[in-house]
Amino acid sequence: MTEDAGDYSVPIKLDTLQNSAVTSVSVPLAKGVLHELTASQLLANGAPIPCGAKALTNWPDGSIKWLHLTFAVPKHLTGDLIFRVAKAKQSETANAPESLSYISNDSHTTVTHSLYRFTLTHADGSFSIAPGTADDANKVIRGCLNLHDAHSRLGAVSSCQVSIDHTQSLLDGAIYALSVQVDMTYALVDDDTVSNITSTSVFLFTSAHEAIKLDVTLHNANAAVHSGGSWDLGDANSFYFSALTLAMKGDNASTFSYRTEQDSPWQTHLTEAATDTSNVSIQQFSSGGENWLSPVHVDHRNTLPFSVNGYQVDKEGEVITSGQRATPLVSWADKVSVTIENFWQKFPTSINMTPNEMLISFFPAQKNHLHELQGGEKSTHSVWLSTNDKPDSLDELTSSSKGILFCGEYLHSEIPLYTECQNAHSTIQDLINNGLHSQNNFFEKREKLDEYGWRNFGDIYADHETAEHQDDSIFVSHYNNQYDPIYGFLRQFILSNDQQWFTLADDLAKHVMDIDIYHTKQDKDEYNGGLFWHTDHYLQAFTSSHRSYSKHQGIGAYQDHAGGGGPGGQHCYTSGLALYYILTGNPNAKEAVQTLTQWITYVYEGGNTCLELLLALKNRHVLGLKNHFTGQYPLDRGTANYINALLDSYVITSERASLQRVEHVIQHTIHPNEDVTLRHLSNVEETWFYTVFLQSLVRYLDIKSVNKEFDDAFYYARDGLLCFAQWMLEHEYMYLDKPEILEYPNDTWTAQDLRKAHVLSAAYFYGNKHDHTLLQKAEYFENEVSARLEQSDTKTYTRIMVLLMQNDGPTSHFKHAVLPSEFNARKTDWVAPAYAKGTNVTRIVKAFVKRMLALSISNEVNWLKKRLG
């Protein structure tokens, strides 16, 4: 960032981008720098270029905190692009592309582009696309989304809601991009009642090109039954359906062409007459990979629902060609081009073409097989439509890259990434790079498990769970974002500008948002909106898909293993989703962070029923649960996850209440003057995750420090950190130095040791860099982790790799970071904690009196019904 003569400038790295590719980048801005978008511009070769801009988050004073830019990279670009806060002079303004416009009323929305006119019917979500602006009925393409139930009957739309959002152009304030969202609810055909099955279609338009992107999400909002704590496919509240298709029709018979793979030749069908009914279909049945018959694909019957490897092209029912992995592109109906993103990765999919009609099937009809959408599950597919007479242009749009900033620009972004002092050639970085360059890299892991298909694609193979697997069969275990690989992948992308890291993050984030989060409000509140655990340790997934627990798994797999359960606060990771939202502007990621925050808040704070309080009384001494009578939170990773979720919500919303809640949680978990020995932290199996809590506390301090808020809450947390760090300095060691006290002494423990370096180096920094032994101990842990894992045969296991990505960077950062000011000296006379005051009887009586005063019989009954059902 540079400031000169009133200008505020940020350079943007475009090292890997192709000229003319559409790309995007997010820019963090200091408080007070930018209030109006039109007071900024994007410069290429010193001149402003067309650019869409959207404020993602704002500072409390209303100025923009994070700004998302979308633009086409100009040809003949020399050097970096420059984002500048300084209103453009009239003579500097470039010629903007012809802007979008729209008109919307109660019944229709019409979007006008220089190359087409799009009209949406609000009653049922159907639409039409007419090339140009002339009212030429012969060239109009009509489309609609069709959902067919288990009996192949067309689902009726019971309600349809339309909402519109736009992105402003920096050049002239006009519309640069536009999104039109269509939310539809379907009625059950049998009794015409409204169901909990919904679809969301988001049409994305931009003035930068003529293509329209359509994202279609199908959602089963019912709660799963999950009998006995198992979450297997075949649940009574799953939604079974035969097909979900986008049907497009033209009024006149036309020639159509298609290409099955990017390097394959175009095939053209010449329409001979208006009555020509020739039919060509391209269908992806399975992944086409070496392990296409992997048990990861079993249905509720525990059998594979397909028998064809890869894809087939049929003409009039006869197979005319086949292959492994199709990436089809179709030109149809007077040069309307169509392609589906991740066509083969999200199988089964198909495109069916006739001279008059095209069916784009996100879930194609299949003989003797129904698709299953579990309760609380979503599935999203994306399709591109273009009126360009060069269909190959869609290749560029579907593979466009992202830009990033130089690492130092993120230093004061309120998201501590610890990137500015990173050593690109450290041993830990070399270990992390195995994620892209080793024989067991993350892309290769997909192939080993065949982590493909619409429900699986994007998730990571939990291959560390195969350590005790005895034969060569495929062991199915899903990772479900444990320790936040979304964050780790994005941090590596920022460090390296290698688009492969972003691809991994993008695929995983979309998977987590659809599949791993429990999208329902009809289950128990401690489950609603929660994140499903990874597949249960040391056990195969069987028919549980990505929902942890299967009736086929049994019990007793490890210490205290009972089998069964549901989402829990010990497994909640939001920082990667928050960073993904900030880097991409994807509103679903923001919604996911807020959903998970609301869920984990309930997990720890509970509701307002007396029955719930009775259960809390029974469980008040259970490890991992908040004591609702003393108000004290457990010193563990669940509380850390709660703090991180609140901090992430604060980062993306700037709502002060989230930060205040964090301060409450910290002050009701630890005390700055406590006797740490009473925590019995030497019992590693029961207490190791205290370091995770301290890391979340450090993150709170980092955010407060960026905002220069050095108040009592800051120093309470800071002194708590120093209190525990002093104990760590004297007592902590590498976990595997005492393997006899561990149930499973493996190198996951070595990777976890890196957390200690984070905590100790932060204590060194926030202690004014006075105690160098803290930094030395931090560097000891970092060096030992590096040396030991470098020699480990399991160094490329998923969990180890993710832990390294999550926890690398702080030691170097805190060693070299400049103190914002001299911090206050540590206090030794903090007031006794609230959780230590009063007697047990007094606390219990007060809690129940408070609940009784707000008693609601209906709430009590509802709470009980959801737990007895």
From TrEMBL:
It comes from the Bacteria. GO terms for biological process: carbohydrate metabolic process. Pfam families: PcRGLX_1st (PF19501). InterPro entries: 6-hairpin_glycosidase_sf, PcRGLX_1st. Residues 20-73 form the PcRGLX/YetA-like N-terminal RIFT barrel domain. This is PcRGLX/YetA-like N-terminal RIFT barrel domain-containing protein. The lineage of its organism: Bacteria, Pseudomonadati, Pseudomonadota, Gammaproteobacteria, Alteromonadales.
